[in-house]
Amino acid sequence: MTTLIPTGEMAAAVDTFLAAQPPARRWDADHLDWTHADAGRLTEGQRSAVRFVTMIEDHLPGYVDVYHRHFPVDASVGPAVFAHHRELYHFTARWAAEEDTHARALARYQWESGLADRDALRTELAGPGAHPFGLDYTHPVQYFTYALVQEKATQIYYRQLRDLVDEPVLATLLGLLARDEARHFSFFADVVGRYLRAHGDAVVAPIRDVVADFRMPLADMGGYWRWALRIADVARYDHTDAYAHLVRAVDRAVDTRTDRLDELVRFVDSCRTLTPTGGPA
Ligand SMILES: [Fe+2]
Ligand SMILES: [Fe+2]
């Protein structure tokens, strides 16, 4: 498939990602001191925010499935494409393990802190968890652009929430989550930059389409989206917060912007939410 970046480019991005988290810096849910987790120290809005992000992180199997479907590592592709997808899989496997740790740690926070009963939470998460992850793009760069925006938006949200909560176990957890999402963002920004260098103006329209149609995961589940808006008075979850970082990734990738890139940057900027819908000023 000529729309991919060369396999060596993908391998270099994956090498950089894996090297950025040496074993000593890895963590999992068992490393937190759960004895002091106390949802009684959270406001009603903060409790709702924790439940919301648990649901988003718990939707991981659907998200990983998107990669398996669109970057298959099997006989449905020829050897050259297989080699590219196999390199990407080194990333996907580690990334999925880290996101699963997020889902597990947030769920554990809920039952250790008294926010939810473990069995009831499992049942509650099964509904949105089974909801299809509707991501069907025509160009590979679109999956990486989507993830770039989503990872950065999530990182920003976790950081905002961490600065607001007065509960040390949750604050520690949110700090760990934000740090991971920042690394995930860096990988996707690196890959999108490599696409721009390899394919130039040919990837501008596909990237533009991602921004034009952007939906957060589960956004098509009306009830959950209303929930997201309701928690905006705690900390704003706004994917357009990430757009400045997309523009920066574009600028880092190219020495001089072409006319088409200029137009893309203007468009991305115009999609940003200029008036905050809530949260601290
Ligand atoms: Fe995550
Ligand atoms: Fe992430």
Explain how this protein is built.
The relative contact order is 0.14. With about 280 residues, the protein is mainly α. It has a single domain (about 35-270), classed as Ribonucleotide Reductase, subunit A, CATH 1.10.620. The protein has helices at about 5-20, 45-60, 60-70, 80-110, 120-130, 140-165, 170-200, 205-210, 220-230, 245-255, 260-270. Bound molecules: fe (ii) ion (2 copies). The site of one fe (ii) ion (FE2) has 5 residues, from helix 4 and helix 7.
Task: Give a short synopsis of this structure.
The chain has 281 residues and is mostly helical. It has helices at residues 7-19, 44-58, 60-70, 79-112, 118-130, 140-164, 168-199, 204-212, 222-230, 243-253, 259-270. It has a single domain (33-270), classed as Ribonucleotide Reductase, subunit A (Orthogonal Bundle).
CATH class: Mainly Alpha
Q: Remind me, CATH topology? A: Ribonucleotide Reductase, subunit A
Q: What is the molecular shape?
A: globular
Helix coverage percent of residues?
Answer: 55-70%
Ligands: fe (ii) ion
Say which CATH homologous superfamily is assigned: Ribonucleotide Reductase, subunit A
If classified by CATH, what would the architecture be? Orthogonal Bundle
Order of helices and strands: HHHHHHHHHHH
Q: Kindly report the average pLDDT value.
A: 90
* Straight-line N-to-C gap: 47 Å
Number of strands: 0
Radius of gyration: 19 Å
Unreliable runs, pLDDT <50, ≥5 residues? 276-281
Tell me the structural class: mainly alpha
Q: How much β-strand is present in the residues?
A: under 5%
Number of helices: 11
Number of domains: 1
Largest sheet: none
